[in-house]
Specification:
By secondary structure, the protein is α+β, with helices and mostly antiparallel strands. The protein has two domains: about 5-85, SH3 type barrels (Roll), CATH 2.30.30.240; about 95-170, SH3 type barrels (Roll). It has five helices and 14 strands. The chain has helices at about 5, 80-85, 165-175, 185-190, 200-205; strands at about 10-15, 20-30, 35-40, 50, 55-60, 65, 75, 95-100, 105-110, 120-125, 135-140, 145, 150-155, 165. A seven-stranded mixed β-sheet has the order 5-6-1-2-3-4-7. Strands 12-13-8-9-10-11-14 form a seven-stranded mixed β-sheet. A hairpin with a 6-residue loop joins strand 9 and strand 10 (about 120-125). The protein is elongated and about 50 Å long.
């Protein structure tokens, strides 16, 4: 699931069925490996109301369900979350730089596992292959990432794990001809007499990153 798809989603309490607000942001631990809480759309940073990850029961398509209303508290009551918010670091928009000084792009979003809170990886923008042909660059969650005010650092070998998702490049790899590359009508008619060898959807499986899940940051998206 993409972080950007969650922002603004309704929050409903399982016990009593009351709607208590909407998600303003996701709070990510300083290691950049897991979501540790959700922030409601009220207050300002450490003064905001938050709920820890353990209170979340489900991320549905229309609402996020939490266990009980008392799980929602001021950020000051949860030191780990408060520390992240006090740092004022945000994931979205950070330049991603290797410790050797090579820029890999900017963090545009991140994907997380809605059942565990674990970060699956980061979508990047601003690279040469981030276009209609190459698709969206995707970085699987690295073993180490250090968030700062303007830049997030990663090890140099992380660059080799960045791969495009979507776009013509990925479509061709999956054996599907993009609409703009369809053969002329005459060729299509001629080919109907020959056995089809087209790859079916069931053979290709879902496109990378399609189980989507704005993207906060080391603290908030």
């Amino acid at each position: 699931m993409k972080a950007s798809d969650v922002i603004g989603r309704q929050i409903t309490v399982r016990e009593g069925g009351s709607v208590i607000g909407k998600i303003r942001d996701l709070v990510v631990d300083p290691s950049g490996r897991e979501v540790i809480g959700i922030m409601l759309a009220d207050g300002i940073l450490s003064g905001s109301r938050v709920a820890p990850w353990k209170a979340v029961q489900a991320f549905g398509p229309d609402s996020v369900v939490i266990d009980v209303a008392k799980s929602v508290v001021k950020a000051a009551a949860l030191p780990e979350i408060k520390g992240v918010l006090d740092s004022k670091n945000r994931i979205k928009g950070l330049r991603l730089l290797t410790t050797k000084g090579r820029e890999l792009g900017k963090i545009a979003d991140f994907l997380f596992d809605e059942s565990t809170g674990d970060l699956v990886g980061y979508e990047l923008s601003g690279r040469v292959f981030s276009d209609a042909f190459g698709g969206t660059p995707f970085l699987p969650t690295p073993q180490w990432i250090e968030f700062g005010k303007d830049v997030a650092f990663v090890d140099p070998d992380v660059e080799s794990t960045v791969s495009p998702t979507g776009g013509i490049h990925t479509t061709l790899q999956r054996g599907v001809t993009p609409p703009e590359l369809d053969p002329p009508a005459a060729d299509v008619e001629a080919s109907t007499e020959a056995p089809s060898e087209a790859v079916t959807g069931s053979e290709t499986g879902p496109a990378p990153g399609s189980e989507t899940g704005p993207g906060p940051g080391a603290g908030a998206v």
